[in-house]
Amino acid sequence: MNSLTTAAGATGAATGDPFRPAFHYTAGRNWLNDPNGLVYLNGTYHLFYQHNPFGPDWGNMSWGHATSRDLLTWDEQPVAIACDEHEAIFSGSAVFDEFNTSGLGTAANPPLVAVYTSAYTDASPLAGRQAQSLAYSLDEGLTWAKYHGNPVLDRESAEFRDPKVFWYDGGAGSYWVMVAVEAVQRQVVLYKSNDLKAWEHLSTFGPANATGGVWECPDLFELAVNGDPQDTRWVLIVNLNPGGIAGGSAGQYFLGTFDGVAFRSESTVTEGLQTDGSRMRDYGWLDWGRDYYAAVSFSNMPDGRRVMIGWMNNWDYARETPTGAWRSAMSLPREVSLIRVDGTLVLRQRAVDPFCGLGTVQYQLGPQALAPGVLALPPTAETARIDVEFRPGTADSVGLLVRSVDTEQIVIRYDVADGILRLDRRASGNVRFHDAFPSIETVEVPLQDGSLRLRVYLDRCSVEVFAQDGLATVTDLVFPSPAGNGLAVFAQGEGAHLVGLDVVG
Q: pLDDT tens-digit profile of 96-141?
């Protein structure tokens, strides 16, 4: 067992691995992409993920496995579900079959059941198809066996994948629901089952909103609005690639109702396949950066919480990121909720904080007027949480410079005239490994009572920005020089005030 992430302050850079994150999960070696089978059981969080056990490039898709007691420190486990000569193990989900509806365990020892996509190889009688299959564990996820009756759902399709399964208990009855995609058709297809083996089609949703790439990795769950259990909406997550708001991969969400049969969106802006991007900024996006994809949520979470994790990369350049023998990391886990802002329902995301109770305040700056220009602050470490609040006033812009040295810098800038928050990584360090990497990400962020609040998580190869307590997020990879640890605040124009700044590390 190998611990791959620790609390803030890990020393990956000291071991000659300058981009190994301190508080984002990575596999010890080799390729990693979509999170799969996120499930909580008996005090342990299980993170499965797409993984190549044999090299740092995509291929040999199997389910890697990591476990955690706190969503922050992860221990890598042996490969859970391995590819073979007949199938690659594509994305899916895992459920705790508490009442042994599948018959794959016993009443005394109910199973964990993984529902995954079998991507059949040329050696298989089902060559070229993608269909849904089962594997099960009777020792809380340590070892897995494939179900002898696989596949359990086959549409004879080459692009039918990524099943997310949950238990539905409502007016239409009580049963398992599968949410999967016909990727190229940009459709979410829903099925039901009493035993996870025999599936009946319920309904189909889409195409709608962003359709510039294939749809992948759906999720469907219910959230209370403003914490009121009498006022709820269902959230349908649909990831797509390409066609994201910042280019390449991204995740979008719809809000609406689910009656046990059909999801009905209340937030659809455009229906059908879109031929232009004129309404892109009107859609619901999980993240406005370049590097948050395939986001899905944990099942069986205690206390009704809903926590999601995404793959912190982008298919535009994922195969070329300069990290050596390992490639790709997961985002910080994010607890999501629904709130009303000026009458509009918005998905709020707050990171599970790796510094909570562990980090110390390294530097504080109290309320003061900000003169035009750049105010350099004491350097930060490679890893930190920065909490800052600005009152831009009559200034043109305010913001932060982070991970800076010489001509390198990451710019987080808020422009008052258009109300846009920008994350500029064009001079962030190594940006030349792919033409699509140098970029500026943008999101509209209205001021609240004249203020802008930002929480910024810096890790060795990433920046995650949470604006206005998580009403908007921007996630980008960066590959700065090891000496790049400069920090500054800046203002352009007169009239800006700093309410406060804390650096925790």
A: 999 999 999 999 999 999 999 999 999 999 999 999 999 999 999 9
* 286/253 Cα distance (integer angstroms): 7
Q: With contact defined as beta carbons under 8 Å apart, do 438 and 426 qualify?
A: yes
- CA-based nearest residue to 380, from 486, 500, 460, 502: 486
Closest C-alpha among 362, 239, 307, 406 to residue 68: 307
Catalytic residue (choose from 34, 162, 291, 459)? 34
- The rounded distance, in Å, linking the Cα atoms of 62 and 4 is 19
Rounded Cα–Cα distance for residues 173 and 290 (Å)? 40
Please state, as a whole number, how many other Cβ atoms lie within 10 Å of the Cβ of residue 427.
15
pLDDT 10s digits, 276-329: 899 999 999 999 999 999 999 999 998 889 999 999 999 999 999 999 899 999
- pLDDT tens column, 165-215: 999 999 999 999 999 999 999 999 999 999 999 999 999 999 999 999 999
34 catalytic residue (yes or no): yes
Strand 30-41 vs strand 326-327: parallel, antiparallel, or unpaired? parallel
Q: Cis ω on the peptide bond leading into residue 302 (within 30° of 0)?
A: no
- The two tokens of residue 21 are 């994150």
- Beta strand 344-351 with 496-504 is unpaired
Q: What is the DSSP letter of 25?
A: -
Residues 6 or more apart in contact with residue 460 via CB below 8 angstroms: 12, 13, 18, 19, 20, 21, 22, 382, 383
